[in-house]
Design a protein that fits this description.
Layout: H1 11-34, H2 41-48, H3 52-58, H4 62-65
Helix pairs in contact: 1-2
Length: about 70
């Protein structure tokens, strides 16, 4: 897997990138189906299968998710 700068990253970097992409897919789905006000960070974390604290490592706020 190539990183944003076009270089191969470490396994950990690849996993973090895959998780971030899963978060973005989940947010896009929830925004389309529920809207920003109804979407919760808890729902996003649950949909991706990660802890809410892990989600905040990628995106510091709900606004940043959107």
């Amino acid at each position: 897997m190539l990183t944003r700068n076009g270089l191969r990253g470490s396994f950990k970097a690849q996993m973090l990138q895959a998780r971030e992409e899963a978060i973005i897919r989940s947010v896009n789905h929830l925004l389309a189906s529920k809207g920003f006000e109804a979407m919760t960070v808890d729902e996003v974390a649950a949909d991706v299968g990660i802890a809410k604290a892990s989600l905040y490592k990628h995106f510091p706020s709900k606004e940043d998710l959107a």
